[in-house]
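Cross-check.
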Amino acid sequence: MSYVQMKVYMKNNIEVYKYYSGKLGKKIYNAPAQGKTPINQLKYQDQKASRICGWKIAENFDKNDLWVTLNYPARQAIESQKAKADISLNCTPKVGHKTTFGGAVFL
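Predicted model, tokenized:
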């Protein structure tokens, strides 16, 4: 296997990511399927998903953007209508002050 370098160009920075590639270099064949994903592979997939999410957030959002954090109990499904009702602004919160309305926290 060989190293491959990937550059991610964002608005204000360039991130260089170096990783192993199984497509280039010496051919190493995959082992037969074990029927269960190894824990190391799951960790790698989580790290990759987190890295890609960070890139998307850095590219699409700015420090001056407005945002809302909705807090709900853990491991409980929330109906979309309830979430929409929490997001809808029946009152106008003051920007820069923390306000709680219907389970939503406005900063």
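Residues 39-60 form the longest helix (22 residues). Strands lie at 2-9, 14-21, 68-70, 99-101, 104-106. Passed to J.P. for a second look.
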